[in-house]
């Protein structure tokens, strides 16, 4: 490096650098002032909101001449159900209230900054792999109470309130600490999916006892088919849903309630241990460790190629696989087989839940109109249109009547009817992300990496106890 | 000229300084500030909690596990990449022996240079997807297909050797850039030195270890810092390639993935920012140490 000390200028490179550094230092406090608005602790006041006069025709009191903004997740269900059914329904009723519609594939990326600055859209479909933490949103007072929506009269079912038209348990599924905040719109049945054609060709029937299950697995294995599999790379939660479903059938639905409420010993409960033992041993005998490294789409494709017998999933599966499924594949679903003869619930017991979250933002410009949009979704016509376009059931009772159902959907409907009141679900995965992540890891270990049931339950129990003791995590109960 | 000098210089500096302040310094200070708060990221409400996030971080086993993986990458990635890159660069520049006293590269070295550099221009996510096929655990994986030829059974790359597999991709992608970097460094070494070495009867191997490497010391040091910073990242590859994004069971977890999980998945922006600050400090310490280590005057030539 040369230093031109003989230069006519006194502004050498070195002094220039030194002075630049000084300018940089001067700039720092200015940057600090700028960042003051990043880290401001003052809570801005809620923006002024539109509202109108409540009447029999306008039970939620929307401002009929003011716009409403909705954002839909563009995923497995698409957006056609919104643009072709729900938006036109709303616009037909309120022609002067303009609907600003948009969709996104990354809900959190698009909307999180808008919530942080208190300028959210009025109605949000919170879904997908990048959904916003619903519990945290409710905890941050960003979600509007839907009590008035559920008490309002239904749009097209005369004489009934919105709540009366719904499948029992729907309101509860969106309730956080006693208040309904979220509409879970799609009704999902979770069970073991298989090909009706494969089973018919081989004269197999869906098993109801564990002995039948293993006997069938032996037959499948003899034919070179992996009897049962899930995708470890990104869908381990399908598998812990299976284990917990078995646990609920062994010990009754209260097992799941205790888990949701973070009760001491909820995971180390005998029913959970028994279920984990049964599935862990099954996987050790019939599983294929290669599937630990596969994604859900890859395992689902293997099933469509008749290389996997049973696949645990929800009723969205048929629609998700529509373009890869052979025409005569005929998706069917069965409830999980009983693990023991002494199971508290019958073999028809089923994991079924209202899912796919929709909510009105408390700090939106026009939250009542957001709720009004939800009322249009919950109309019989709105729900029927949704089922038609997405092959998914909704929480609106009887909305699928008169529709020609696809094989998978018809099968889902049938097992749901057979289960009767014996359907149940859990919610800890949406409430406590840490617990969900730990359960995924523990499940992969149990099923593929030489884990055992004791280790499975103790490690998840430890994670649950840790969450319970952490005061910074908002708690929920049911 | 002398009179108008300062306005002239300041005029040039003002724009970069403003841009730098707004797009670099401001976010850094913002993140540092958020790291002392319990912000969920979902509402404007946030409270100052002092260093709580940092004490939580120190008590978090997953953070320590990720730090361990960074240390592993920090040691292996630069060593393997630099060794390979030096070797290839030497072959490209001097592997062909001497021709009229001038060192030449192996036959076709211009073509190889392009081939080596090719992975560098691919987006990391695309590399991830490609290697998803290479490492596929069943018979459809390229590596497993290859191993079948030798009668080796399926290897579960991501399940059993996750971190090594990630290391392999990082090296594969980085090596080309450092080949070019070192090749440029080698061509700036004066020919007379080689000429003298050849005349003294030095073999190619001696020339490599006794002449080339000492003359390239500064370049290697810079490469070490770059690769170290790369080892602190690895975010995209881990997200795309590994089981359960950092699994199985945390086996491939790295700090940027933990930041993503804390911020985006768990809505703990305060904690995520604290992790980010810790990662930045970790990186700066590493860079300072490696630039200071073995400091020696550059050889004048």
Written account of the structure:
The complex is a heterodimer of chains A (478) and B (301). With 478 residues, chain A is of the alpha/beta class. Chain A is built from 19 helices and twelve strands. In chain A, a hairpin with a 2-residue loop joins strand 4 and strand 5 (179-180). In chain A, helix 9 (236-251) packs across helix 18. The longest helix of chain A is centred in the N-terminal third of the chain and has 23 residues, at 13-35. Chain A is globular and about 65 Å long. In chain A, 51% of the residues are buried. Chain B is mainly α. Chain B has one domain (61-292): MetI-like fold, CATH 1.10.3720.10. Chain B has 14 helices and two strands. Chain B has a two-stranded antiparallel ribbon with strand order 1-2. In chain B, helix 1 crosses helix 14 (269-292), helix 3 (61-94) runs parallel beside helix 8 and helix 3 packs antiparallel against helix 11. Chain B is flat, with a radius of gyration of 24 Å. The chains are: A alpha/beta (478), B mainly alpha (301). The interface between A and B is large, with 56 and 46 residues.
Provide a concise account of the structure shown.
The complex is a heterodimer of chains A (478) and B (301). Chain A is of the alpha/beta class and 478 residues long. Helix content of chain A is 43%, strand content 13%.
């Amino acid at each position: 490096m040369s230093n031109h000390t003989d230069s006519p200028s006194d502004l050498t490179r070195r002094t220039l650098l030194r002075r630049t550094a000084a300018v940089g230092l001067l700039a720092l406090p200015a940057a600090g002032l700028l960042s003051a608005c990043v880290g401001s602790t003052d809570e801005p006041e809620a923006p002024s909101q539109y509202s109108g006069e409540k009447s029999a025709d306008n039970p939620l009191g929307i401002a009929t001449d003011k716009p409403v903004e909705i954002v839909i997740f563009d995923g497995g269900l698409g957006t056609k159900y919104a643009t072709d059914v729900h938006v036109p329904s709303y616009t037909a009723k309120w022609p002067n209230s303009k609907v600003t519609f948009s969709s996104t594939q990354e809900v959190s990326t698009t909307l999180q900054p808008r919530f942080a600055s208190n300028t959210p859209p009025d109605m949000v479909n919170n879904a997908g792999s990048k959904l916003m933490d619903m519990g945290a949103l409710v905890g941050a007072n960003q979600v509007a109470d839907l009590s008035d929506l559920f008490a309002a009269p239904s749009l097209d079912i005369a004489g009934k309130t919105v709540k009366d038209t719904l499948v029992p348990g729907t309101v509860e599924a969106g309730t956080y600490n006693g208040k309904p905040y979220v509409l879970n719109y799609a009704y999902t049945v979770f069970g073991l999916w298989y090909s009706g054609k494969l089973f018919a060709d081989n004269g197999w029937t869906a098993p109801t006892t564990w002995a039948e299950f293993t006997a069938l697995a032996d037959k499948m294995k003899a034919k070179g088919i992996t009897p049962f599999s899930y995708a470890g790379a990104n869908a381990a939660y399908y598998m812990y849903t299976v284990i917990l479903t078995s646990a609920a059938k062994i010990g009754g639905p209260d097992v799941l309630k205790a888990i949701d409420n973070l009760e001491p010993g909820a995971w180390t409960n005998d029913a959970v241990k028994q279920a984990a033992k049964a599935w862990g041993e099954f996987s050790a005998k019939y599983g294929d460790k290669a599937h630990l490294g596969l994604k859900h789409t890859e395992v689902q494709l293997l099933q469509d190629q008749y290389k996997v017998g049973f696949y645990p999933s929800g009723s969205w599966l048929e629609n998700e696989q529509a373009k890869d499924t052979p025409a005569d594949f005929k998706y069917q679903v069965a409830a999980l087989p009983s693990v023991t003869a002494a199971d508290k619930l019958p073999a028809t017991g089923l994991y079924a839940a209202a899912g796919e979250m929709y909510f009105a933002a408390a700090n939106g410009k026009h939250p009542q109109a957001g709720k009004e949009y939800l009322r249009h979704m919950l109309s019989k016509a709105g729900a029927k249109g949704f089922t038609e376009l997405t092959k998914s059931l909704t929480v609106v009772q009887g909305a699928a009547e008169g529709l020609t159902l696809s094989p998978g959907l018809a099968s889902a409907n049938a097992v749901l009817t057979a289960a009767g009141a014996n359907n149940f679900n859990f919610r800890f995965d949406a409430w406590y992300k840490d617990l969900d992540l730990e359960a995924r890891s523990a499940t992969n270990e149990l099923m593929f990496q030489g884990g055992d049931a004791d280790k499975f339950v103790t490690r998840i129990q430890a994670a649950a106890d840790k969450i319970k003791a952490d005061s910074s995590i908002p708690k929920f109960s049911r | 000229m002398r009179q108008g000098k300062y306005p002239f210089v300041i005029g040039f500096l003002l724009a970069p300084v403003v841009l730098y302040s707004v797009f670099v310094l401001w976010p850094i200070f913002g993140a540092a500030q958020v790291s002392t708060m319990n912000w969920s990221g979902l509402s404007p409400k946030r409270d100052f909690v002092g260093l709580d996030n940092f004490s939580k971080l120190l008590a978090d086993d997953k953070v320590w596990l990720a730090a361990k993986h960074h240390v592993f990458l920090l040691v292996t990635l630069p060593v393997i990449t630099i060794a390979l890159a030096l070797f290839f660069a030497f072959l490209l520049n001097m592997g062909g022996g001497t021709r009229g006293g001038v060192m030449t590269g192996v036959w076709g070295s211009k073509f190889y240079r392009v081939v080596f550099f090719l992975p560098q221009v691919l987006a990391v996510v695309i590399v991830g997807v490609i290697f998803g096929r290479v490492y596929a655990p069943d018979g459809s994986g390229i590596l497993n297909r290859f191993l079948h030829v030798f009668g080796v059974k399926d290897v579960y790359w991501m399940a059993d050797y996750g971190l090594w597999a990630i290391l392999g991709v990082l090296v594969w992608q980085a090596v080309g850039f450092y080949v070019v970097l070192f090749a440029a460094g080698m061509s700036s070494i004066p020919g007379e030195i080689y000429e003298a070495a050849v005349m003294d009867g030095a073999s190619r191997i001696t020339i490599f270890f006794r002449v080339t490497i000492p003359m390239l010391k500064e370049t290697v040091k810079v490469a070490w810092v770059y690769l170290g910073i790369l080892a602190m990242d690895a975010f995209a590859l881990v997200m795309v390639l590994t089981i359960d994004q950092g699994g199985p069971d945390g086996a491939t977890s790295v700090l940027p993935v933990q930041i993503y999980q804390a911020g985006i998945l768990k809505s703990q922006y305060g904690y995520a920012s604290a992790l980010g600050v810790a990662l930045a400090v970790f990186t700066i310490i590493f860079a300072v140490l490696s630039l200071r280590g073995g400091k020696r005057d550059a050889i004048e030539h």
